[in-house]
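Q: Joint fold for the lines below.
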Amino acid sequence: MEDRIAQLGTDARARIAAAADLEALRCIERDLLGKQGPLAEILASIPSLDKAERPAVGRLANVLKCELLAVAAERREVLEAELLAAERSCEDFDPTLPARPARRGSLHPITRVRRRVEDVFTSMGYRILEGPQVELDYYNFQALNIPADHPAREMQDTFYCTGSGNLVMRTHTSPVQVRTMESVEPPYRVISLGRVFRKEEQDATHDHTFHQVEGLVVGEDVTAGHLIGTLRSLLAHLFGRELDTRLRPGYFPFVEPGFELDVRCPFCEGGCRVCGRTSWIEFCGLGMVHPRVFAASGVDSERYTGFAFGFGLDRLTMMLLGIDDVRHFMAGDLRFLEQF
Amino acid sequence: MLISTRWLGRHVDLGGLAPEDVAESLTLSTAEVEGITAFAPHLDDVRVGFVQTREPHPDADKLAVCTVDVGAEEPLQIVCGAPNVDAGQKVAVAEVGCVLPGELKIKKAKIRGVPSTGMICSVRELELGDEHDGIWVLDEDAAVGLGVAEALDVRDTVIEIDNKSLTHRPDLWGHRGIAGELAAIHGRELLPLDLSLPPTGDGASFPVRIDSVACSRYVALPVDGVRQGRSPDWLRFLLLAVGQRPLDLLVDLSNFVMLDLGQPNHLFDRGRLSAEGIVVRMANAGERTTTLDGEERSLGEEDLLICSGAEPVALAGIMGGEGSKVLEGTSELLLEVAHFDPVTVRRSAIRLGTRSDASARFEKGLDPALPMEAAAHLVRTLTELQPQITLPAPPTDVGAWTDQSREIDLRGERVRRLLGLSLTDEEIADSLRRLHFDVSAGEGALRVAVPSRRAGKDVTLEEDLVEEVGRIVGYERIPVRRLTAEIAPPPPDERRALVRGIQDRLSGGARFHEVLTYSFLSDDALATLGLADLPHLQLRNPVREGERSIRRSVLPGLLGLLEPNRRRRTDVRLFEVGEGYLPERASERGEPAQVHEVALVWAAPPAAAAARFDAGCFAGLQGVVEDLLRGVGFDTPDWEVPDGELNEPWAHPGRALRVVLPDASGAGRAVGVLAALEPGLHRALGLEGELASDVVAARVSLDRLLECSRRSAGYRPIPRYPATKLDVALALGGEVGVGDCVAAIERCGKGLVASCELFDVFCGESVGAGRRSMAFHVVLASPERTLGEADGRKFLRRLERAAADLGGELRSE
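A: Joint structure:
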């Protein structure tokens, strides 16, 4: 019996050592150590053995069982390591094969930049208001201190609607200033973004439909210094660094004093195509709210002061994204849109 | 407007300032400078030469061979064809290598066999005037060998100012005005200019009658003893520098005064004027007159005329008439300097298409005090050139004009408060005095006297003075500040959140591309899409003929983008969030209702016949809309078959569904529509042949969405017990809808149906004629226990009976 156990041990060790993979090892373990296996058979036969023989056989069989379990575990570790090593090998990996694209749609570039502008201003406590694009002559012109026959009306070639003659396609977002002042009590900070229309010939830098951002702040201690500070904050957010600005006189009938703000070209030092080699870019028309506009909207211009500004979203988008033709924006061409 | 820096020097000493400094200071304090250019740079290269000899050309009667000393070691030999060239003249010589205007490069040449090394230039060749009847003979004093510009002292730099930035500054439409600004900015003296009228004779003044309120002042001054002729070089070069072609003395002088003081004026041939005198009146309808440019013009009752008796002789403020042109030899003139209503002039000039330098100035609203000063300036300038002239009679000065000068109280506090700049009252007063405003101490404020030239529409309010102070002090001095205030965060902006949510949802996994399309639709597009009968607000002056209708919906614009994009892409998915205008729903003030919507279009090649029931764009877009609405906080919508007229001409009448959500009261509310494209439109939109497409579109109203109730927040607990999955197929009559089946399945589940998803629809012989098979994945689950096989069996038995009740059968388990 002891010989048989020894023989069994020799065979079993050899089989385990020869197991080619984990599945084979599992089969061998089942064969040797399972309920129907030879060790089980030996253990089951112990009661039928001589009393003297029983302890030794029992011990030998149990020792062998323990040993085989250990050997099998060892072999399993080796096989698992081999398997991992095989998996880690990269023989069948071709790093030059392309990615499978994750397809998605796109947001319009104007939307992308519009959101950035909105977010800067809302973070500074501004509300976003909307005004109609088909606007009353009163709001687009008269209430903004641009009466009929004012030369400033010609600065903005206007689309007029048929009918009673009091509707125009708004030429700027400034009417929202008046609508705001009429409906909200100061103090307030608002911006308005949206489409505006001017009857212009279309070329790489002009379209008859474009987008403006209008800002209006009214309060008891609002100065031109705050106006400059506000726009510098915006520019720093948009361009990722502080940019130099300069203020110069500008004429807009609804502000007094009126200014234009130039920003130091962020793309060059000393002149490039974007700034027309002047190293300054005209960015924004702005000023302190005109007392006549306050009067038209019922705001006490002795108690409150305010500033307003307006700039083009299309040109800003073109600058930020390096787009060279404004006509792409409204053309709806997927070859353009897919890039954003 | 072009400004000559040399001309400015007549009014202010700009010593020490480079033209670039002048330009920058104007930009920063007055008006935008668009560019700086050197005047006639070729005059630096063309040199003063002395004609030593002139011999006839051996082989050509009309040519002469000259030797010309240009200051070099050897004189040049130049063949010249001008009849007036002669020995002893100082002339302008372009040497070999010199490039003249028009890219004319001077080369060595042989002219009829005689070598010629250079060219003696005419006035026209140097772009200094029209004269081409001979070479330009220079002043005897010109130093030989110097560049002509230097020798004649006509070097100049021209500054171009953006006219738009002078819209509100009628006082800056002449060099003296700009010089005054520069004097104020740089703290220099504005040189005095005598603008008083010299003494006149006591003859009878010229009769003038004003019959229109559009003329508020008319000064008429007779001038005698004038000799016509060529202007002196100083005057010609000033005019040339600012782009004015010198003509003859009288025209040049008139232009000079306009460009110097900004006041247009006119010289009439007095002998040609009627003895009745000048009458200023509105034109009669249909009246005609011929202007100086030779155009015959048809006038209307809104055009202001200057008449000699009854005869029109000028379009007031715009252009003189052919009939009053000063004839050669005339020595008796009438000088007109007037003030006209800016609106009348502007309207006439636009209507007649004749905007001139004069009308550009009048339409800004000139100072009515200026005409007499301008008359004096012209007369004084003329007297310097022709001391023999006389003024036989006092000027006529008629009209209901008033001096515009006014006093405004300016509180120093107001300046400090608007600019955010701490200035003392003294600094404020000083900056205004630099602009020639008189400042005195008033009650609690500075009393500022604004001169008439500024007090028209430009400086009328305290705030206008704040601007004057700011720009003269320098805006760069304003300290940059940040706003501080006790502010509450802005209220939640539901509309913007909705727009952003929609954009994000669609542009993400739904793979839609956002576009922006124009608000204007053409007549053709409306007719094509069958929308022509709907009321559209229209433009009176569209950018292109027919492109006049203002959109009611953003969808039509998207449909027009399908064909070009389908040419380049197989699968085209576009959306736009935008506004439409409904004129039939106008406010009391006439504002059309503005509606907000998102429109989606999806075009792709038709799905294969054997594809799954939901493979096409229709089901796809439904899924997108469901996901979109859930994504922005609403329930999955109900899809309702529209009963009655859909009123969407683009939509397929049989393949259209309304998108329905519960409103605040829980009632179903149609928020939009989804439909396949009307079959007749495929061809019209170019989607046939290779581009044949399955096209589906949807519109969802944002205004209505904002009135619908949101999906309740909260979650469904994750089941604690395992679920049982079953696939069931029901064979039912074609009239039984999916909804009926789902209802039956849920009923049979007795509350255990966790989900029920259609995965196959099949018609065929094995199902039976007129019937179809619908197969569902059904998941049964209980929150209380693990379900056993018995639960599944009971469910199937009940479903079998339910199928029979619906007139069909349960096909399989």
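Q: Anything notable?
A: Residues 254 and 265 of chain B are 6 Å apart (CA to CA). Chain B has six domains: 2-39+157-186, 41-151, 208-398, 406-474, 494-705, 724-812.
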